[in-house]
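Posting this for the archive.
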Amino acid sequence: MLTDHERASLVFEELLGKSEVFAEVECKKIAGIPFVYLWPEKDSSREQIEQSLKWCASKAMKGKRLTLAMSFVRKNQTLYVYRVRFLVPQRKMFCCGNLCEDCIRFTDP
């Protein structure tokens, strides 16, 4: 069974793939951080790209307690790279090793 976070990521990737703004989309996780590589259609501005990213993210997060953390990384000729993360509010994301009572290891996904 998938968590809300995993479902949102899958829906987000699917919506980006169907978007008319992008010719090609590739999602990669590097060192545990998700990056989105975008090749937009011709005559697409950075504002249009970011609006499309936010629209897809909002549709993916609908009905879930998630927030979006998106930041521009770089542009290389026709390639745009963004770091896009869905965050769960006020919930630990990893085990710190201090044997906390509310450790992420002791909760069900």
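Residues 49 and 71 are 12 Å apart (CA to CA). Residues 4-87 form a domain with the Threonyl-tRNA Synthetase; Chain A, domain 2 fold (CATH 3.30.980).
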